[in-house]
Amino acid sequence: MDVMSTPSPDPAPALAAPPGAGGRLGAEGLRPVSEALIRARYLAGLIGYALALIVIAGCVVLWAWLGWWWTVFPALLALILALQSLLLTPRRVRALGYLDREDDLVFASGIMFRSVSTVAFARVQSVEVHEGPIERSLGLATLSVSTASAEADLTIPGLPREEAERLRALLARRGVETMAAL
């Protein structure tokens, strides 16, 4: 990953950082991803939530009919996993942010374990925009940036489709300009 020590001017105006972003690593000037990503993640998790509900119901039935008290443990595990997903998804999505600067693209993610990645435009080999059926229905897309190094690849989920296309065109244009300058 290439990390620039001096910030470059921002070609597009940055939106205000999300509330409570003060003090977070890399939160200054980041644009948040779309809030619609929260809904997309809930919709994508519906099968998991339904399975958790089936496990909980099955364990309660086994306990009531057969007296298997130990079925409380798998039921509690399923409940805890489903609740942490339901309760933490909005916070996880609000922790995502990106910023396109003059020479690079910055992406930050994570709540407890914060990660800030920077990919220089000169290192970009390919840029792809993906959208699944749920993303498409909500007008979202995922931007994938590939570099020569596997560790420097970058994926930004939850971008509005127009913003993902703008970033794809910007990265492709800047990559061509950089290669032409060599």
UniProtKB/TrEMBL annotation:
The chain crosses the membrane at residues 42-66, 72-89. Residues 94-170 form the YdbS-like PH domain. Signal peptide: none annotated. Residues 1-20 are annotated as: Disordered. It holds the Pfam family bPH_2. Keywords: Membrane, Transmembrane, Transmembrane helix. PANTHER family: TRANSMEMBRANE PROTEIN-RELATED, UPF0699 TRANSMEMBRANE PROTEIN YDBS. This is Membrane protein.
